[in-house]
Amino acid sequence: MATILVTGASRGLGLELVKQLLDLPAATIDKVFAVTRSQPTPGLQELVNSSPDRLTNVMIEDLSDLSRATQASKDIEAVLQGRGLDILVNNAGTAVECPSGICSMTNQELLDVMNANVGSAHAVTTAFIPLLRKGGHRKVVNMSSALGSITRYDTYQWATTYSYKMSKAAMNMLTVQYALEFDKEDFTFIALSPGWIKTDLGGQNADIDLEVGGKAIRDIVLRSDRTDNGKFLCIRVPGWEGHKGMNQYDGLEMPW
Question: Is the pLDDT of residue 110 over 80?
Answer without folding.
Answer: yes
